[in-house]
Amino acid sequence: MPVSPLSVELLAVTPNALSLIYAAFRQCYHAGFVADMWPRLLSGEVDRETQADFVRKVLESGHDSPVEHASFSFAIAGISRACSHQIVRHRIASYSQQSQRYVDASNMDYVLPPAIAKIPEARERFEAFMAEVGNAYRDLKDILEAHGRKDKAKEDARFVLPQAAETRIVITMNCRALLHFFHLRCCTRAQWEIRAMADAMLALCKAELPAIFATAGAKCESLGYCPEAPRFACGRYPTREQLLAKGNAPE
Question: Of 26, 96, 109, 141, which is least packed with CB atoms within 10 Å of its CB?
Fold first, then answer.
């Protein structure tokens, strides 16, 4: 039952994502039919930098719905069930998660919180409990199988598995949903595990589609101030209240 490290891999991106988003934006403001423009976009007649500049400018105006036409798919491992329960609260996404009904957890990996890891007595107690859980799971599975549950034994034995149990998941989100996800989960107020995952996802998105994600991240990155109440602010940006006090009210 080893500690499992975080792994975030980009599986797929919508083909010609920048051109698709550009075409969607242009259709909103263009009298013609963007399908006629599409071959020119793919051939490079309208170069990628021109497309990117147009997309960035429209995004800055607050018009962001056309970015929903492109999506990213990630394979993620080394996160806990506690983390995955937070992830699936983001409803505009598709998820395929490793099943504890069908996957044998006899040799379960787990996630060790850094705050526990750095305190020797806390780590010792945590790891001892993980070993106890592993033993209980294996014992229950064996007992259930001996009493005829066979392949169904795993779905009942899993009830002793902890929040720390490692899980693996494939996530697909469109770009608008990703921007919202990063607004919330890259913030220092987000739980450490999902924040580390979001930061890794964001780095991949920035490298793949900078026109959309170059300035993405926590809300403060785009606002230029912290929208949280002062007691929750990390200090990286001034709060709205601090700006108001100085007569610099945010728009």
Answer: 96
Distance CA 105, CA 65 (A): 42
Residue among 26, 81, 185, 240 flagged as catalytic: 185
Q: Which of 69, 70, 58, 71 is nearest to 29 (CA)?
A: 58
For 72: left if phi > 0, alpha if psi spans -120 to 50, otherwise beta; the answer is: beta
Instruction: Name all contacts of 100-107 with Cβ < 8 Å and 24+ positions apart.
Output: 100/154, 100/155, 100/158, 100/161, 100/165, 101/154, 101/155, 101/158, 102/154, 103/154, 104/141, 104/154, 105/137, 105/154, 105/157, 105/158, 105/161, 105/165, 106/134, 106/137, 106/138, 106/141, 107/1, 107/134
Instruction: Report the pLDDT value the prediction gives residue 251, as an integer from 0 to 100.
Output: 58
pLDDT in tens, 175-226: 999 999 999 999 999 999 999 999 999 999 999 999 999 999 999 988 888 9
Measured CA to CA, the distance from residue 78 to residue 56 in angstroms comes to 34
Catalytic site includes residue 185: yes
HSE at residue 187, side-chain half, CA atoms within 13 A, is: 21
DSSP-assigned letter for residue 162? -
